[in-house]
Design brief:
This protein has seven helices and 28 strands. The protein has 491 residues and is α+β, with helices and mostly antiparallel strands. Strands 4, 5, 6, 8, 9, 10, 11 and 13 form an eight-stranded mixed beta sheet that branches. Strands 14-22-21-27-28 form a five-stranded antiparallel beta sheet. It is globular and about 75 Å long. The termini are far apart.
């Protein structure tokens, strides 16, 4: 479609509405200056572009420039409520701007997003997610959008445990910056949040910002975000937004059942683990239901425990794993932190900590093709799961639930700050397009041996089960993991 044809695809604008928008643009050019803007000329160009877009796209998608205001309100000492308020709306104005009398927009356009600025070394890992090349998938920023189908003024987010907050302006849009405690200074955590209200297209951006991105750089990234209304329903640059009405429904359901839901996923009756296998026992991988596993049998032939990395092949040890050992090759201890979680009137804090020895768990896993057809590109995956039995039930424990507080304890959460990766950080067979955890080929009657390694605390050895289901099951029980069966490797 040609640019000049766009005006025929959207509703015509009344002269009254055109004049109102021009007055508003003139007012904003005079009174508002976005963060990191270098000159008033730049603001003028942005305003001019907005006028041009309004003239082309009509009133519906650019409604509410002056009607709504993003604001933050303190709640207690460390709580912040982020809302969008209305400014003097009338039935006549809502009809003119393309919203119903209830405030809900009559039409919310799809939008495309362009990231105009990324810090040096930051790359896009997937739609709306960006991380630094030297810390892929660990930090950076993650962007989501809420599609305000119930009306812009319905937006409300309440946060607690807030260290600081401030109002910001990015590209002429109102926003809020929030900072949360960064308890683990040596690790990357998402301890910042940015909200920006794009009320002209009835969207709100929520940007999760990790600790490896400075506040200044985060605001520059937000400043570079550009949204463009579109009628396209597909495309890589089309934002994956979440209807606010759906979000509210989900939030309400979670508030009612979150605790019960989490407990149901990490706890099963003991009889549901009847398929549990022993070291040296051969079992079928076909129960996962994948055709590529037809005739594939698995045996955990051996499990060894060491206090260094000497069992591993140097070729396949990455830098992060190497960092777990000292100069003499011995594994460094893990720190267990006891945390008192913050709320509306308090900040999270580390109450105490202690050190625990770390151990290498080294498993020899044999994959045997018992069928009569060669198997190609066989995905394998090993994860360690900490499972404890209590009152006839089996319960998975996580690094965030390392211990349960006793009566009188001031801490609410014990966290393992050691290596604590349940997914295998080490394996010595590689294949597939990305040369990762695939066995290139297993001929009929052939056995391929894979060595896998994990780092755990000495205290966890008594609770370890090995899960070889490629669908997962490290952090919660899954049907395929229970059908295939865990391997009891408790020491």
């Amino acid at each position: 479609m040609r640019l000049e044809d766009l005006k025929y695809e959207f509703p015509e604008m009344s002269e009254e509405m055109r004049a109102m928008i021009e007055r508003e643009v003139e007012k904003q050019v005079k009174t508002e200056r976005p963060q990191f803007q270098k000159s008033h000329r730049a603001v003028g160009r942005t305003a001019a572009a907005s006028i041009a877009a309004v003239l082309l796209l009509g009133t519906t998608v650019f409604a509410g420039v002056s009607i709504y205001r993003l604001q933050r309100e303190p709640v207690g000492d460390h709580g912040v409520s982020v809302t969008i308020s209305e400014d003097g709306r009338t039935a006549a104005s809502t009809e003119a701007e393309g919203t119903s009398s209830s405030g809900a927009p009559q039409e919310v356009p799809g939008v495309k997003m362009e990231a105009g600025y990324l810090p040096e070394g930051m790359v896009e890992t997937e739609n709306g997610k960006y991380s630094f090349e030297n810390a892929m998938y660990k930090g950076g920023v993650s962007i989501t959008f809420y599609r305000m189908d119930t009306g812009d003024s319905q937006f409300e987010m309440l946060h607690h445990d807030v260290v600081s907050s401030e109002d910001i302006t990015v590209n002429g849009y109102q926003g809020v910056y929030l900072e949360f405690p960064h308890l683990y200074e040596e690790e990357i955590t998402f301890n910042q949040r940015i909200y920006v209200a794009y009320t002209d297209v009835h969207h709100v951006m929520e940007m999760y910002v990790a600790s490896d991105v400075s506040k200044e750089e985060a605001l520059k990234i937000a400043e570079g975000i550009k949204l463009t209304p579109t009628k396209d329903t597909q495309g890589e640059d089309l934002v994956a937004d979440w209807d606010w009405s759906s979000y509210l429904e989900s939030r309400e359901e979670n508030a009612q059942s979150q605790t019960e839901d989490i407990e149901s996923r990490i706890t099963v009756p003991k009889e549901e683990m009847k398929q549990t296998h022993s070291i040296g026992e051969r079992f079928s991988a076909e129960k996962t239901g994948l055709d590529q596993y037809k005739g594939l049998a698995v045996t955990v032939a051996d499990v060894r425990v060491s206090d260094d990395l000497s069992l591993l092949n140097e070729t396949f040890i990455d830098e992060e794993l190497k960092a777990q050992a000292s100069a003499d090759g011995k594994l460094l201890p893990a720190t267990i932190q006891y945390i008192k979680e913050g709320g509306i009137d308090s900040l999270s804090e580390v109450v105490s900590s202690r050190e625990v020895p770390q151990k290498l768990v080294y498993a020899t896993v044999e994959y045997t093709n018992t069928g009569d057809t060669e198997l190609s590109e066989v995905l394998f995956f090993g994860s360690l799961t900490r499972i404890r039995e209590k009152d006839g039930k089996m319960r998975i424990t996580t690094s965030e639930m390392y211990e349960e507080p006793a009566e009188g304890d001031t801490w609410t959460r014990a966290v393992n700050r050691g290596f604590a990766y349940w997914e295998m950080p080490y394996y010595d067979v590689h294949g597939g397009e990305r040369d990762n955890n695939y066995i290139p080929s297993i001929k009929p009657g052939e056995t391929v041996t894979v060595h896998m390694g994990w780092i755990v605390t000495e205290e966890e050895l008594k609770d370890l089960y090995l899960n070889l289901d490629t669908f997962g099951g490290a952090y919660e029980f899954s049907d395929t993991s229970l059908q295939m069966g865990y391997v009891d490797i408790r020491q």
